[in-house]
Amino acid sequence: MPNFSRQRKNPQLVALGHAIKRIRLINKFSQETLAFTADLDRSYLGRVERGDNSVAVLTLSKIAAALGVTMSYLFADANL
Asked: How many folded domains does the chain comprise?
């Protein structure tokens, strides 16, 4: 059985997660606040910020809206 904890993370997911976290911190939002505003579970948001989870377009749209930015801004901030 493969050891999933040692698998390499997708660099695009990591970059996007870091961009979300960076903007969240600039806005002085906690994970709990952002998750509540975006109607997401806080633990899921944490996994997205770490690049552990793929994120659906509709979910990414909710995160961007809660942060007060566009999805294109998130991608640009992540250099994607």
From this structure: 1
